[in-house]
Amino acid sequence: MSFLRCIDRVTSPFSNFGLGAVRTATKRAGGTIANHGSSPGKRLGVKKFSDQYVIPGNIIVRQRGTVFHPAANASRDHTIFALIPGYVRFYKQKYMNGERKYVGVVRVRGETLPRDEMERGRDRYFGLKNLNAPLADAAV
Question: Which of 38, 75, 93, 120 has the highest CB neighbour count under 10 A?
Answer without folding.
Answer: 75
